[in-house]
């Protein structure tokens, strides 16, 4: 969500309105801004994956499945950031909303306690978060599934990511009409 706040900071600084009066479509600006955030996130998680594997022997699963899952989860997380930034009024508001969304998503998804111990209805609601999908994906990969086995889960996560970005684009356009 911190990456999404950069959009609001640029709006306050006047950079974003200047970009939006150019012939560049709003979606191009949104995707361009979030691409840098996504690349940073991918690099961070790849370093975490490599370091935890090499230093403490953590097993994340089959490497191709893990790499694709990391990519999909980071894209989903940037979608959440874009969604918050598109509807928040200030960077400070986006920061507060981002913190709240992150904590609620973590609690609902099983990030704090075993997912299987959560009520079924909470497990279903948690699939509105990248956290819920990530826990399912990595559990399957660690259990021995390969990329082909988790493709349906990845498809669901990518549909959720698309929904995040569509709603973010609506909010983004609303801010500047």
Key terms:
80% helix, mainly alpha, single chain, 0% strand, 177 residues
Characterise this structure:
The protein has 177 residues and is mainly α. The chain is built from eight helices and no strands. Helix 4 runs parallel beside helix 8. The radius of gyration is 17 Å and the shape is globular.
The unreliable regions are none
Biggest sheet record: none
Spell out the helices and strands N to C: HHHHHHHH
Radius of gyration: 17 Å
Estimated helix fraction:
over 70%
Characterize the overall form.
Answer: globular
Précis, in short:
The chain is mainly alpha-helical. It contains eight helices and no strands.
List the helices and strands and how they pair.
Elements: H1 2-13, H2 15-20, H3 26-56, H4 63-87, H5 91-109, H6 120-125, H7 130-142, H8 147-175
